[in-house]
Amino acid sequence: MPSTTALSIVTPAETKYEGEADIVVAPGSAGDLAALVNHAPLLTTLRIGVLRATVRRVQSGEGKPAVSRISYAVNGGFMEVLARKVVVLTDVALSAGEVDVDQAAADLKRGEEALSQKRGQDDRAERDAVAWASARLEVAKERP
Amino acid sequence: MATLRQLRDRVKSLKNTQQITRAMKMVAGARIRRAELAMRAARPYSAAIGEMLREVSRGASSVDHPLLRDRPVTTPAVLLMTADKGLAGAFNANLARAAQNLADTSGARTVLYTVGTKGAVMLRRSRYRSAASWPLGAGPFVERAREISRRVSSDFLAGSIDAMTLVSSRFVSTIVQRPTTQRLLPVNGAAELASLDGTAPRSPFEFEPDARAVLASLLPKYLEFTIFAALLETQASEFAARLLAMSNATDNAGKLIDDLTLVMNKTRQAAITKEILEIVGGAEAQRT
After folding, report:
1. Contact call for B214 and A10, based on CB within 8 A
2. Looking at domain A5-96, what is its CATH homologous superfamily?
3. Measured between CB atoms, does A19 come within 8 Å of chain B?
4. pLDDT by 10s per residue, chain A, length 144
5. d(CA B165, CA B181)
6. What is the ipTM of this complex?
């Protein structure tokens, strides 16, 4: 029986990642959740946060796949989990190398200021901006 | 009869024109390839969101959402997508005409939304009210699609429009692009939602937080992606139309240059012959 599940991270502009994963940990809207192989069918919305997975990469020339960890900052979206398949659907997914750290730090600062001024009003947009900036910074920390 | 100098100037100017049309043709050719790749890259997303929508509509006991609700249409709307620039044959005109015809059949209260400068300009003098217009721009279209879909869905939810039809270009091949219409709002025209009558087997999925909530966030995304895909396809069509138009223009300029060069050579030859005749005639006259 296979011990891995096929993970794909899909955005409108491109397929960000495709490969075999041992475990996928996603920021579900009702809390973080982990998906392993043979998970029961599940469809969930995602919050803005960091998606992590342990994946098997087959190196060219060597037969044994190497285990490595990947992480992406995801800007909300959806995740569909099936027994042998995990599909993550999101607008933007950024790996550590793709994050502009200065930009994210500036966004975080600006977002927090905007949030503090919005006391009591509808601050969903500001909250999202802050969450997205922190998610990017968190992923950037894992840069090798 | 034009003088030799005039002919030479015309040929020179035609050659310049031909250089420009040839350059535009090559640019369009290169961009088509990129646009086609972008269209292909969007396919997995399209498949995935379709599948999710299907599952969630099977999973929810009753599917109901403001974006799905049909109501009597007093204010129909048309969303027209064209290019920002011309020089692409009848591309923009065909799309604008399709939108115009659609508006004519749906009533005088039709409201127009346009993407692409050309469409906005072409329909400016029509009798329909224009609610919003965006430029097509050069992409990436994710942001633009979000902007458009936010605006049209909020107008729909606020009741200022009751239904919306999209007029955009379908990229059939590099040779053929066709204006197409599809219903955007209410969303229930989507094939994925066809099995909503409750006869389909219940979905095996668990939903988090619940089917209704997933549907509520899936529907705006679906609308956004439909617009995104149409933007991509319209842009690819624009490049294809421009490639063909500029290729024709280059050929036509070439033909004109050939014709004019022939006339030019004949004129030059005629002048030379005339001179020789004059010299010979003069010499003959002196001998006798």
Report:
1. no
2. F0F1 ATP synthase delta/epsilon subunit, N-terminal (2.60.15.10)
3. no
4. 678 899 999 999 899 999 999 999 999 988 899 999 999 999 999 999 999 999 987 666 666 677 888 999 999 999 999 999 999 999 999 998 899 999 999 999 998 888 888 777 778 888 889 999 999 999 988 876
5. 7
6. 0.84
